[in-house]
Amino acid sequence: MLGDVNSGISPKFVGERNFIECCIVALATNRGLMLIGEPGTAKSYLSELLAAAISGDSALTIQGSAGTTEDQIRYSWNYALMLSEGPSEKSLVPAPIYEGMKLGKIVRFEELSRCPGEIQDTLLSILSDRVLHIPELNGEENVLFAKQGFNIIATSNTRDRGTNEMSSALKRRFNFETVTPISSISEEQALVEREMERLLKQANVPAKLPQDLTEVLVTCFHELRNSKTISGKALEPLSSTLSTAEAVSVGFSAVLHAYYYDEGKVNAGHIVSNMLGSGVKDSIEDLKKIRHYFDQVAAYRNEHAWPEFYQSRKLLDRNS
């Protein structure tokens, strides 16, 4: 997952080895694993990697929302078959939890905290007893005991609207691990370059973002996200998180912009034009803070593509 230079395996996830080990150990216990963190920190991607590595299958996934029902979590029924033949295992339609328990696989529950509290609490007996009761069936069929290997990886955003507080009882049934943004600018830049290369290859676009512009993009996002420059100067925090995933998206969009409209010649203006959608999506006040970053930080950097980046600040005014 973290790659192996000696074996020629590229990293799938950027993070500390100890953190990944703790996640794996958590899944080996009788508790589920809860990955928490800000939006865009690759929680879903990590849960997918863990499920695929452990179970060989990452498709048993529940997408949490205000409209998620018990049927989508545990099981439902083929009512036509149920009416004609009565309730039986044949007329039961398995949902991810049922499948995971029956096959002994990892189930992914995305955005668990977006579900109403009563829906979240359907996991209580499943996580504590590893048993799913099916009262509609008779005999031994009305209880499904989880096969060895079953567990749940859930994710939740710590900085998001529209979420519901988890009950203390449910929290006790999870080991919580916090997924933090990438701390190293060089590692983040390497990841952004790899992902942009992959996306551009998929799009059949024979162009790339120059390395100096990639460095400016990643540094800008890193500093605005952390509310301080690499030299330690404090910055006003944005409402948006400006994640690594968004940096990839902005870089990819900048190259496409240049390829289709400017003969493939990527410049800093393409980055500034396309970063507005990431930086100003939550609050218009963030635009003032981004302008302040240009005037107080970018303006005083003379190396690489920073002067060109600063000169493109006028493109911020299109949202005024």
TrEMBL record:
One of its GO terms (molecular function) is ATP hydrolysis activity. SUPFAM superfamilies: P-loop containing nucleoside triphosphate hydrolases. Residues 29-184 form the AAA+ ATPase domain. Gene3D superfamilies: P-loop containing nucleotide triphosphate hydrolases (3.40.50.300). InterPro entries: AAA+_ATPase, ATPase_dyneun-rel_AAA, CbbQ/NirQ/NorQ/GpvN, P-loop_NTPase. It comes from the Bacteria. It holds the Pfam family AAA_5. This is AAA+ ATPase domain-containing protein. The lineage of its organism: Bacteria, Pseudomonadati, Spirochaetota, Spirochaetia, Leptospirales.
